[in-house]
Amino acid sequence: MKVITIESEAYKSLVRKIERIHSDIKKQAKEHATPQPDPSEVWVSDQEAATMLQVSKRTMQRLRSNGEITYSIRGGKARYTLAEVKRLLSGRVIRNDKTEGGKP
Predict the structure, then answer these.
(1) Which of 57, 104, 103 lies closest to 80, judged by CA?
(2) Could you give the CA distance from residue 64 to residue 88 in angstroms, rounded to a whole number?
(3) Which of 4, 23, 31, 78 has the fewest CB within 10 Å, making it most exposed?
(4) 44, 80 Cβ separation under 8 angstroms
(5) Secondary structure E strands in the chain
(6) How does DSSP classify residue 102?
């Protein structure tokens, strides 16, 4: 390994330049970052919702008829907000906290 020595002021100047470059890169990343849309404002089609929920389009009709999912009809087609699909999806998660058959 080669040891290189520099003056204290030169080192401090180099560190300041590196910090400035780092902050400029972070600033550019923030400016070019795509803001995530609000799930309550993103609408998905019947087919997209069915795919996310891993159910058939007929099951989507049943969910609408039973009032289990809110929807909007636009141009004769059902649309759902992404937030509503996520709500329904999280409501169908089954947790396996219980032990089966007495096994831990």
Answers:
(1) 57
(2) 12
(3) 4
(4) yes
(5) 43-45, 72-74, 77-81
(6) T
Instruction: Determine the Cα–Cα distance for residues 97 and 104; give it in Å rounded to an integer.
Output: 10
Instruction: In whole angstroms, give the CA distance from residue 42 to residue 98.
Output: 37
Question: How many domains does the chain contain in total?
Answer: 1
C-alpha span between 96 and 104 (Å, rounded): 12
pLDDT tier at 99, thresholds 50, 70, 90: low
> Domain containing 68: what range?
43-91
Rama region for 48: left / alpha / beta (φ>0; ψ in -120 to 50; rest) = alpha
The pTM of the whole model exceeds 0.70: no
Of the pLDDT bands very low, low, confident and very high (cuts 50, 70, 90), residue 60 is very high
Contacts of 17 (CB under 8 A, 6+ apart): none
Q: How many residues does the chain have?
A: 104
